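Input set for joint prediction.
Command: fold jointly, output tokens.
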Amino acid sequence: MQNGNVNIRGLSTLYGEQRPLYVVDGFPFEGDLNYLNPADVVNVTVMKDAAAASIYGTRAANGIISITTRYGSARKLTVNFSSTMFVLPKPDAGYLDYLNSSQMVDLEQELFNKWHPSWNDAIRRSGKSKALEALYNHEQGFISKAELDAELNKLRTYDGQSQLEDLYTRNSLKHRQNFSASGGNDVHQYNIFMNYTGTSGSGLKTRSQEINIGLRDKLKVFKWLDAEIGASTNFSNSKSIRETPEMYYSNMPYEIMRYPDGSPAPFTKLKSPYELQRLQDIGLHDETYYPLEEMDKANLTYKSNYFRLQGGFTVKIIRGLSLDLRYQTERGSSYNKNYYLADSWYTKNMINDAAQMVNGELVKNVPDGGQVYETRGTPNSYTARIQLNFDREIAPRHRLTALAGGERRAMVRESTSLFKMGYNDNNLSFQPVDEYKLGSLKGTESISSTFFCNYVDGTNFKHREERYVSAYANAGYTFDGKYNLTGSARIDNSNLFGTDPRYRYLPVWSVGASWRLTEEDFMKDIRWLNSLAVRGTYGSGGNVARATGPFLQAENQFNNEANANGTQITLPPNASLRWEKTITTNLGFDFTVLKNRLSGSFDYYLRRTSDLLGEQQTDPTNAFPYALINYGSVRNQGYEIALNALNVDGKNFSWNTTLSLSFNKNRMTEIGVRDMRYDYLTQGYGVNRIGYPMDAVFSFRYAGLDPTNGSVMVYDAEGKVVKNYDASGNIVPNMQDVNGLVFSGTLRPKYTSGLTNTFRYKNLSLSVMIIANGGHVIRDVANAIQNNLGTRNVDRRLANFWRQPGDENIPGMMPAPDLKNTGQGYYNLIWFAADKNVLKADYIKVRDVALSYNFAPVLQRLTKLQSAKLTLQVQNPVSWFRNDKGIDPEAYTIAGQYANRLLPVMPMYMAGFDITF
Amino acid sequence: MKKLFLYIICILALTGCEKFLNIKPKDKFIPTTVTDFENMLNSGTMVNFGDQYWDLMSDDAFLPEGEPGNLFTKQQPYGRRIYKFDKNPYDQGSNDFLWSEGYKRIFYCNTVINSIMEATEGTDANRKAVRAEALLGRAMEHLQLVNTYAHHYNAATAASQPGIPIALIGDISAKFVRNSVKEVYDQILADGHAAVADLPLKNKLTKFRASRAGGYALLARTYLFMGDYANAKKNADLAIGLQGQLTDMNTYQVIIPGPFPNIPGAPLGWTNIPDAQKNPETIVARHFLRPFGLGMDVCASPELTALFTNDDKRWTLYYADGWPPAPPFNYMNRYGVKIFLRGDYYNNYLGVAEMYLVRAECLAREGKKAEALADINKLRQHRITPAAYVAYTPGDFGDDNERVLRFVLEERRRELAFTGMRVIDLKRLNKEPRFAKTVKHTAEGVEYELLPNSDQYLRQLWPNATVFNPDWPLNP
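tokens >
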């Protein structure tokens, strides 16, 4: 798992669906995993080999996560109630390692004095950082030296970050109440559950609520007929704010929300104080942005309902042969509403930007009043399945199991969005506007003097439908309980590729064998070995990139200029398009030894994906400089080890350890790089290049800072030092040879592991889970200064740049700033992508520590009580990172030419109790 | 019971899998109807044309250098190179918009041309009319490309000189050769003549859509470039016959001063001249990729400045002293030139004025001085303030053919400045030694010269395309 995305065994596709298939109670599940009641999940199985694909079809190429929920027990009534509280402290912004106000003002002043763009009207009108505004105002004679100093000194004392913590954030709280009851008799079993989750986020005024209610019921109608029904529903709603605290942490450190005297302070947005005044003087709105007040001027809400209904019959036809008929439907509705009040900054900004002065008259093209964006969606899907099962000992010691079935499945997602201006939320009125005219206005009061409102972005219809018809069969044969052979096949037929059968069908299949060695006579004598089985599977699966197809695809959008709908070609026809194919080999063994005290499994897999779809450069004379075509191959191989040991098993004390380890290694065996250029190979996202792993990182070989001007020097392919400036000191990209780059690793972890130790002493138990991931790399987050600083805070190390000869010898020195930006992106790239700035990304975290106490044995008088547990838990309390910059790879992001820290992963504390009668 | 299940199986198997799967996807739009293809002509891609930087190569362009207000360094690197007559303005990896967008529009045209006749839901007449519009668009693109990447058409050498690749199919895997200049012109004429037959008499929706007058206008322009003045005149005649109305520019004025907002007295800004697609003088409209072309980034050269007077509305509505009359916009004080500051989305495709100019030039070359001047007078009447307007007669030019022709060409330069036409005119007129001219630009203290018929007029084929086509001969 990485950044919330689940990948099983490495990626096998670049453009197809990368998410594994979730299967809940035997059906593909399209809902949110939060809709499931965690207390009712009895089993989660991860299926990875080819056999999985042949049961669930093409989507299973990325693996399957199969979740089984609870049924009632025929024996007795069980009632469970649990309540849990979660606390996530405010983020600790110290992790971001930004400059403080005083350091920032000093840095801005120093850079301004070195060089700055000459004053002009655009600079005068645009929003600048407050220190820069003051520096320009002094330079232009609008304020005196004393006023400048006073302003800068005042800024030095402002502490925006602590105000953010005091006034804009809070500890996030979540509480969950859960109730379930299950029971039944030999004929009828049921499980009912309800739960409620309420969350208040770390940003003020963000909260969400969720209610789940569900029922599962199984009935023996006749001896030969079983029936079952399941229904569950989710209601949720949430409120959020447009400007989250996360966005504000990177503000200039002296941007405060409240002055020392308690009055509200404005944030700098797009326009300077001069421009804000000018707009007011001509009769437009005051666009000054007060963050604390703005919070109440926008209402962002979301509501949704979701239902899932399942029903099925199992008919026993003759002994060993049964027929299943099953149907599932998922339906829902969602409603997202963003309402900006008439005096919200967003509304005022749009009104002002669209206004024109025509012959001295002010014309407001966007009407005064609120604005509303709404999206209503109705997703739904169904699956119908018919399946014959056969399971019988056809002769003594020969057992045959087989199933064959057909499935039909459809998914529809529809939504309608609208955007209205001059909206009043009380009487629901709005004002009509000339959408055509607003599409392109010239000579407006915006900074760029133009205004474009693409109404289609806010007002549109969407509809997406996927349909599948599938047939599958599966057979297994067991001899003597020792030898087992399996085979499976499935064919999927979908509407995805239009009418051409070449693209519609993808057969997937698998074969497998296993051998339970411990059932053999010659193994019977080995006393310490309780069980041992070896197994292997081989099969083929597929994946499909939904985006592209054999037909020319287009988009239909109103083109304001042409005053008509325009057909825009989005994808050229690609007649040679094929499915991506994945061949998976899996070999493994399972064992249990030492009186079942130690058990485990070992798996080796090899997945070869061919006809990988990738974006490749094409002749631009054919209109499209890049096209998605099948042209790559990737090889994933790895090991997975799982061990479970019962170290101590006493009456009062026990200790259990589980360890899981997985290694993945992948290599592009055939792929052309999208652009074989130095700047493409070194960009932050990683590249796919033949012979290297996916998302490979290539770097410049750093050769130190130039002693004459502090610019970055690099080595070329021959090992000669390359300087990157010309006679006049302008930065020039002298190192463009891709052969001079070095391979520095991959952005994807090569190994992931987890170790859990559980200790139990009488009624008290403690479990500690530690995870370790790594083998991959990240790039450092301190960028070279190019251009001015802008309006965002920067890494503390940026202030420590080369100022004079000799500085280049100081460790950790940053390159001299390229203030005139003569090097464009290049200057930062050779620093950002220097091999010295590649860091190892391995990390170890104590993911989870849980302490629980079961009161039930203590409260023996309450005979009905099965268990009463009190649990205290903490997540992520301790972390260790291999890089010396203290960067947590889980709180980090990388883009084309920069990398950033994200807010840190805070430890989460939980307390809860769980009672079962 | 068993029968029931058998029955259910049969239903499931037979309820038309095919029907179930053969739905037309709504989220994926695969054009099939005549309207779907016709709408390609309204797309955001098709409304653009040309390459605004190209004008920087001409003798109309002047980039002041001193700080502040330095317009040379304000240019993109490509613009700077073009201004310095660099034959390789675009490196591999940078985008030569003329090539990338030009061939993209050809791809759109080819998609329409090759698919519309089989498209559903529409009349045959409309299919042909839409195809004719696409043919005209394709011809126009090829004409612009061949004039940028190849030597000017010369009947004697056209068959042997490399032109540009002719693209006639829209397919991502198509391979093209670099055709000769003659082959390209033959294709342009074939497409143009085929288009004229089916083009509608009136533009549909806006002037972005073509009309029959546009077909004749394209042919007139092409024949003029080829030096075939008889055919050029004939087609200009036909075009003017269908659409010859000019608009009096004296009716236009500045309504919102700019681009310096709300500074009283700002001289120029947003006028009430209709945008190209709605302008009555437009025959077929296209915009530059950037709506105002080079607007605000280039000055009229001293030479071009000298051709205008303050009685010319083109001068007072399209060029500005700059405001405030202080740095950085005081170009008039510093260099005696004005900045090109045109605020309407103007036309760089086919217009009525160009047809009068083509016809006047052909007439002048035939020696029909009075007729030529009649066309010029008609144009000037709609451009010059009434007080200053004079109807010229051959006598004003001493009855000299040459002087009349030169005046016609001068008027052409005034009218078509910064619409992408001047460089082609320079290349064209350099073929005649009497009009041959050396263009000089100064940048970063260095003077650059562009000699008549120099290879420097040829832009190198875009490296992003040539890497895929090593068989194409490159420009010298």
